[in-house]
Write the structure tokens for this entry.
Amino acid sequence: MSPPAAETEAAAPSAPGRRGELSEGARQERRLGLLLCAPAVVVMVAVTAYPIAYAIYLSLQRYDLRFPDQAHWVGFGNYGAVLTSPFWWQALWVTVLITVVSVAVELVLGMALALVMHRAIFGRGTVRTAVLIPYGIVTVVAAYSWQYAWTPGTGYLAALLPAGSAPLTDQWQAIGLIILAEVWKTTPFMALLLLAGLALVPGETVRAAMVDGATFWQRLWLVILPLMKPAILVALLFRTLDAFRIFDNIYVLTGGSNDTGSVSILGYDNLFTALNLGIGSAISVLIFLCVAAIAFLFIKIFGAAAPGGEPERR
Amino acid sequence: MAEIVLDGITKRYPDGALAVRDFNLTIADGEFVILVGPSGCGKSTTLNMIAGLEDITEGTLRIDGRVVNDRAPKDRDIAMVFQSYALYPHMNVRDNMGFALRLAKVDKAVIRTKVEEAARILDLTQHLDRKPANLSGGQRQRVAMGRAIVRDPKAFLMDEPLSNLDAKLRVQMRTQIAALQRRLGTTTVYVTHDQVEAMTLGDRVVVMRGGLVQQVGTPQHLYDAPVNLFVAGFIGSPGMNFLGATLEQNALRTSLGDLAVDDRLRRLLERQDAPRELIVGIRPEDFEDAALVGERRTGQACTATVDVRESVGSDVYVHFTQEGGPAGITELAELAADSGLADTGMRGHRIVARLDPATRAAEGSPMDLWIDTSRIHVFDPATGANLTHPERAEY
């Protein structure tokens, strides 16, 4: 299978070209449009643009809350400190590992669940509700129940392990359990997005493939998945962005000890535990850049439809 | 190429609904058979059962002598053309047409040759590297045909393949499909709700209604000797006119006057114990302007006021309204609903006559019409059976 990459140009909003040729009516309409957008723009500036700008401003200063008087401008010094620190690279490595593994597992499981939900003839509503339960539970609550379950002596899951094992205290086992908790929690979300994509595959096309002699797997690989590509890319984009910012599961399960912390945990520790606003803000800005890079990669390279963008033409 | 035998095929859905009841038909090798009927008559279900896309509840299906009831579609060696064409949008025309061969692990060079041969037949050579989205409706339809013919299957199954084309293109493609089928000689089962397509394409036509086969026969046979009201009304355009009639001594009394009953018809009616209340069917072409009919032809004259006159050049269609058309007949109500007549909200009972273009008929004025009484059909209102042609359908 060779997915044609070039055909799916991400739809970028094209600016209207000819300037100064607007009629009076068109200008009126544009003014009305701007006025109608204005309240939303003001709110967005207040809650998004200002915090981002302030975080960037803070990241360029040496600013420790314990010594607020000594705050001073250091330029990109904080970024240098973060990027040369082994803590950052360790956290980034753990984050990427968790992101890649959990999203990959979720994609496969989510696809399987979506196929089951799509084909369920009776009890469709019940199946969908049952599948969605993990997604409906607050992450922190779910994380605590995982933590209790894996705690030696009290947890029912720990009891299944050989005596003396404490999985949450070992780096690899803990990362595995963090990934398990992530997968358990967000696979339903993936399944729902993929189910919506599956509903877009025309039934006659699949039946045509059956008559053409395709087995179930051939139909899945050669017809259904290529036709679902836009939906899969959107699902992957959302989940990757989400997974990269993982915080609550790690915070509850290990607190980031034994080298299990993600970049978000590292940022939190620096900002709120060490009260180092400069370094913490620099980490936040770096996370922001990573997330932006992931989104850019998906939209520009793989051709995922940007959320809110024009639907892809085929 | 193969013979297809449907032996007592029945489709019952889990909720108990019967989609197809006891369908018996032997489709000869190389034959072009049309399944026609209004929507919901079970024609597509029958086709899907032949394809293997739907399970057969009862009966046996044999293709080329083998029972294939439990075989998956891929093991039946049949090709299907769908109404939506069902092309693979992510593949170009070449890959679409070669997909089945690729799955069958046919040698690449062979696939290439076969696809190019089919593209040449269908005039698609210059479009081979384009995606379906960049093709016109007619071109997509041809790709769907091409996908079927490259495989050289035992049979072609076509599910309303021309319904998504505009009227003009549909007529062109209809001719092309007929020529292609004759050239390839592949057994073909074709589903349509359009009786004109059915009449022009098929060697034999199967008329279905409510999951039951009504009649099987050549297009001309269905037209000349429909077994019941439904077939009579469904086949032919404009459709047959129906009038309530009372059987008198030597005539059928209708709102258009008394229609003489000749000896042959009287004997037929007597032998079948015909009731006194009957339905008379008259095809539009069995009317003529009385002024244009020579004295020597036997028939019946009557007078009616012309509502609408439509000239199509070769013929003139004259519409007039009669009170007291046959009422409460489910077949006729169904036909009216299917043709959209029920939605026009017209009062009274509409009669259409096809006249010679020399007629002087004018809208709003009365005219003398002549009816060819030797060609009328008489139906039993209770059973719908055609009493004029009592022989059962030829299978």
